[in-house]
Amino acid sequence: MTTPFEHASRPLATDTYLLHGIGDAAEFGGIVNPPVYHASTVTFRNLADMEARGRAIDAADTDVMWYGRKGTPTTFALQNALAHLEGGYRSLLVSSGLAACTSAIMAFVKAGDHILVSDSVYGPTRHFVDTVLARCNISATYYDPCIGAGIGSLFRPNTTLVFTESPGSQTFEIQDIPAIAQAAHARGAVVVMDNTWATPLYFKPFEHGVDVSVQAATKYIVGHSDALMGVITTNQATWRTVREYVFAAGQHAGPDDVYLALRGLRTMAVRLERHQRNGLALAQWLAQRPEVAQVLHPGLPDAPGHALWKRDFTGASGLFSVVLAPGFSDHAFRAFIDHLALFRLGFSWGGFESLVMPFDLRGERTAAPPPAAAAVGQAFRLHVGLEAKEDLIDDLAMAMRQLARQ
């Protein structure tokens, strides 16, 4: 039989690639999914074999079984699939999404450097910048996520990296990534982007000037709330630098978690379609509610950065935020959250189930205030899962009755 790639007259569509392009069943006796390799030790036939594989590892662009921490066929299958989807050169798996963010930064900085970080960045990434990097004498300036090309005025002679996240954490501002990348590259800085929200299915980072893309594979790639993992994808120019740091830091993803991510990846396209459809339906419904001051979803016409989202993205995931109208007591807000049934209260997102998480941005932003309503009102983030949207709307409506009763 021919392979799907030999038979096709054009490159496979993403949906088809996710089903047929991840691994070659012929390599594993016809088994559809790459098997789980539990391996720490890899043995060699002789010294010449060990030396040859070591040289291949040092070439930095070859998948070679050399030591379990540096990868097995299970690892390589997922890494290669993710690099293909993102349009990057190579990918590496690490232990968590936060590890992907911090490793991508550490690969490019040294004592005395300065970096630029979006003011709407993921909270734990910000904590790492403010604590670990500060102790290493690496300074950071937080920038307004809506700054676009104006970011050029913030560069210093020792600025080496720009860390972007679009849309922004909690408030979902869309950044002008091409303009930021152009300004950074003109000054010799590397651009890193957290692409977890859109995934490579809805945003192609390397087509927009990004040098290194990171994702919390925990979220939409795994998709079932049962594994932690991060992925770092690079272009060819940044590959060796990132690879050297990741290997030196001992970063690694366990084989069973890699298998779960491979399984989740197969259905990510169809899951994201449902997340997007449900998310937009709920965002539009919430925007009409008198209890709501603002819905922060880039797919809505009045959302921050909507025009940039339409220009650069091909879709939206199921994560967005809601700010309540002023006047509700803390007791009423807590009653609303506690009366939700299908939206479970929990950290993380990206799984099949719907989640809610309250947040308060007061005092957390330093470069620019968040969207006006979010600066003063009670706010919560929704991850809209795969349930029927009618049931999710009904769940929110019943919980909102608690706001009027308090």
Automatic annotation (TrEMBL):
Keyword Zinc assigned: no
GO BP of this protein: L-cysteine catabolic process to pyruvate; transsulfuration
Pathway(s) per entry: Amino-acid biosynthesis; L-methionine biosynthesis via de novo pathway; L-homocysteine from L-cystathionine: step 1/1
GO MF: cysteine-S-conjugate beta-lyase activity; pyridoxal phosphate binding
Record-linked InterPro entries: Cys/Met-Metab_PyrdxlP-dep_enz (IPR000277), Cys_b_lyase_bac (IPR006233), Cys_met_metab_PP (IPR054542), PyrdxlP-dep_Trfase (IPR015424), PyrdxlP-dep_Trfase_major (IPR015421), PyrdxlP-dep_Trfase_small (IPR015422)
UniProt keyword Lyase, yes or no: yes
Keyword tags: Lyase, Pyridoxal phosphate
Cofactor: pyridoxal 5'-phosphate
Residue positions where N6-(pyridoxal phosphate)lysine is found in the record: K219
PANTHER family: CYSTATHIONINE BETA-LYASE-RELATED
Homology family: Belongs to the trans-sulfuration enzymes family.
Protein name per its UniProtKB record: Cystathionine beta-lyase
Organism: Pandoraea thiooxydans
